[in-house]
Amino acid sequence: MKKIIVSLLLIISFTATAQFKEGQNFCDESKDKSYFPLALNEKKIFWADTYYTEIKKGTKEIDGKVYIEFHQKWKNNTVVKLYLREENGIVYQYEECCEQETIRYDPNFLKGYTWNTADGLGEYQILSYKGKLKTPFCKYGNLMVIQANLKSGKYKFYYRRGHGYVGATFENEVISCVTPTFDLD
Predict the structure, then answer these.
(1) How wide is the angle at C-alpha 165 spanned by C-alphas 84 and 101, nearest 5°?
(2) Could you please report the per-residue DSSP string of the chain?
(3) Cα atoms in the Cβ-side hemisphere of radius 13 Å centred on 78
(4) What is the dihedral angle through the alpha carbons of 15, 130, 146, 80, rounded to the nearest 10 degrees?
(5) Could you say which of 24, 28, 173, 176 has the lowest number of CB atoms within 10 Å?
(6) Distances in Å between the alpha carbon of 123 and those of 83, 114, 152, 165, 181?
(7) Average pLDDT, 10 consecutive residues per value, the chain (185 residues)
(8) What is the reported pLDDT for 6?
(9) Rounded-to-integer distance, Cα 79 and Cα 146, Å
C-alpha cells in the first residue's frame, strides 16, 4: 500500500519543475506564471524519510503524442518514469497502468473543481489559489493547493507559479518539499 501511495504522490509531484535563472534565489518567485512548468532539467525533493531527484530525460512518442520523459531517481536507486505533455495550456500525464492520459492540470480549473485519475483510484480537487506553506527552506504564499483523496488518506499538494510542485502535507504536517541540496551537513 505504501508503494502505491508513493507512486501516486510521485505522479502528482511530476510538476516539481523549477528552473532557476542566474542570480535567482531558491525561494524567489519566477517570472514563468505556470503552476506546472515542464522546463525542468533537475529538481531535488525530500519525501518523508527519503528523497529523490527528478531529471528531464528527453521525449518519447506514445500513441502519436510526444511526451516529455522524466525520471525520478530515489535514494535507493529506484527509478520511476513519468510522461507529461502540454497542449493548449493543459498538462497531461500518460498513465502506463491504463494506457491512457489523465489531465494533471487545466488553467481553467476553478477553486472546488474535482477530477479523477485514469485508473479511478485517485480524486483531486483544487482547494485554493492562495495557499501557504512553510518548509525548512522557504515560506511560500499564493500557492495552488490540490487535495488528493486516496484510499490511504487525504494529502495536500502545493504548487507555486513558475516553480511547480513545492511541497506536500498529510494531516497538516509537511511530509515533502523541494530542496536546494541534499547535503544538509
Answers:
(1) 25
(2) -HHHHHHHHHHHGGG----PPTT--TTSPPS---SS----SEEEEEETTEEEEEEEEEEEEETTEEEEEEEEEETTS-EEEEEEEEETTEEEEEETTTTEEEEEE-TTPPTT-EEE-TTSS-EEEEEEEEEEEE-SS-EEEEEEEEEEEETTEEEEEEEETTTEEEEEEETTEEEEEEES-S---
(3) 10
(4) 20
(5) 173
(6) 19, 7, 12, 18, 32
(7) 39 38 60 78 89 93 94 94 93 88 91 90 94 94 93 91 92 92 62
(8) 38
(9) 25
| Residue among 77, 108, 72 nearest 91 (CA) | 108
Cell numbers at 185, concatenated: 551537513
pLDDT at 25: 65
| One-character DSSP codes across 69-101 | EEEEEETTS-EEEEEEEEETTEEEEEETTTTEE
Task: Find the Cα–Cα–Cα–Cα dihedral 62, 102, 171, 81, rounded to 10°.
Answer: 0
For residue 111, which of 132, 127, 130 has the smallest C-alpha distance? 127
Q: Quick one: pLDDT at residue 40? A: 66
| Structure confidence at residue 73 (pLDDT) | 94
Distance CA 157, CA 47 (A): 12
> Residue 167: phi, psi to the nearest 5?
175, 175
pLDDT of residue 99: 87
